[in-house]
């Protein structure tokens, strides 16, 4: 009787607060998988190949830059391959990964990078929001938006 009362109270509390009693999207294992995919993308952006980038971004990619430009999968990969966008270093800090459900995750982090875009050295400091989607068993970047930190 005491156990039944506990479960009824827990169910009522979950309904009242809108909370689920199970981990969203698979818990720590899914978070680690998303974080690993994000790390593979960081590395691929420094040393790009069309194959490595293509495997990590969705066909429907919407890649928003801090200056307002929005890339598709094709233009994102092309800019990295031809040096229009050239990352010499990328340092990621303050990363959080929230797995929303079995196929969707939100990744936020700060990005500091040395660049050499079209042969012109520079530095960027950004806050990034990324939406990752599990496709065919692999996590892929579906959408990304950057804002300047200062």
Offer a few descriptive terms.
single chain; 150 residues; alpha+beta; Nuclear Transport Factor 2, Chain: A; six-stranded mixed sheet; 4 helices; 6 strands; 35% helix; 44% strand; DUF4440 domain-containing protein; DUF4440; signal; NTF2-like_dom_sf
What can you see in these coordinates?
Pfam families: DUF4440. Residues 34-141 form the DUF4440 domain. InterPro entries: DUF4440, NTF2-like_dom_sf. Keywords: Signal. Residues 1-20 form the signal peptide. There is one protein chain. A hairpin with a 2-residue loop joins strand 3 and strand 4. This protein has a single domain, classed as Nuclear Transport Factor 2, Chain: A, CATH 3.10.450.50. It is 35% helix and 44% strand. It is of the alpha+beta class and 150 residues long. The chain has 4 helices and 6 strands; from the N terminus they run αααββαββββ. The longest helix has 20 residues, at 27-46. It has a 6-stranded mixed β-sheet. It has helices spanning 2-17, 27-46, 50-56, 73-81; strands at 57-64, 70-71, 87-101, 104-117, 120-135, 138-148. The N and C termini lie far apart (59 Å).
CATH topology: Nuclear Transport Factor 2, Chain: A
Global mean pLDDT: 87
Total domains, how many?
Answer: 1
CATH architecture: Roll
Largest sheet: 6 strands, mixed
Structural class: alpha+beta
CATH class: Alpha Beta
Helical fraction: 25-40%
Give the strand order of the largest sheet, numbering strands 1, 2, ... along the chain. 2-1-6-5-4-3
Organism: Variovorax paradoxus
Signal peptide: 1-20
Protein name: DUF4440 domain-containing protein
Domain DUF4440: 34-141
